[in-house]
Amino acid sequence: MKKSKRVTISDIAALAGVSKATASLVLNGRGKELRVAQNTRERVMTIAREQHYQPSIHARLLRENRSHTLGLVVPEMINYGFAVFSHELENLCREAGLQLLIACTDENAGQETVVVNNLVARQVDGLIVASSMLSDTDYVKLSEQLPLVLFDRYMNDTRLPLVVADAVTPVADLVERQARAHPNEVYFLGGQPRLSPTKDRLEGFRQGLARAGVACRPEWIIHGNYHPSSGYEMFAALCARLGRPPEALFTAACGLLEGVLRYMSQHQMLESDIWLASFDDHYLYDSLSLKIDTVAQDVPRLAQDCFDIITRMIDGEELAEPQRILPASLRLRRKSTD
């Protein structure tokens, strides 16, 4: 198959009967400024449109020392929260004339290093990262080369710019309601215990129990990872151990709850009296007969704040508030008397 030929400025110049320099001036918007005749400008632009000419992004990069691209690194592409965040951020980039490049780490620190290096090699102007790493050392070094913002997750005491949703306060409020209704049994299904989302949501869980006057039992806390399959497996093992569904359950993420609901559907448990609650909301929960209370992050604002910080950093602005913790809200679908 014959390889298609990209239309160049030289091609446009030849078709218009002008020099390459003249065609370049017109196509770069400087023809009128440098007194190129109007009929010549119109002829060049007409031919460019007819030939579907597109300027070289590489030439633009050399002129401006920018690629006009941002890199986004997420653990999972199919995770509902990350999918919505990616969509919101891509819209913001498109409106600003930027291209968003998205890479997935599969919750693997080694894979994260690879995809970050690939994005840096493509000369992105800045990076927004939901990291699976436990130390910010590599990112501190990288931040000396280009702007970088952490989101959703952070490493202890990091000073890097970050945007996260508050988890401790709303989870405590939600779990307190569960614990007052079921003081004898409230389970927690979480992801990797060393990641900040798990630690923050577990702290909220413990605070909620304490506010309800319920002592947290070690066997109530179960960890896996944030994949739906992990939620399925943890819940299956818990039901097997108890011989029944638990009275009350809090899952630390939407993906974990997905696995729990799949198990419940397969084993005819959707009509049980279990009190389900979760961090992360999903619009489909409004359609379920099973009432699920959730903590809802303001994902559009998360994306907007990340975009605001990274673009300000790219423009060389000083940040008055480089670390932002955004409020989250409760979606209460189950009455406390249910």
Automatic annotation (TrEMBL):
One of its GO terms (molecular function) is DNA-binding transcription factor activity. NCBIfam families: fruct_sucro_rep. It comes from the Bacteria. PANTHER family: CATABOLITE REPRESSOR_ACTIVATOR, LACI-RELATED TRANSCRIPTIONAL REPRESSOR. This is Transcriptional regulator. Pfam families: LacI, Peripla_BP_3. PROSITE patterns: HTH_LACI_1 (PS00356), HTH_LACI_2 (PS50932).
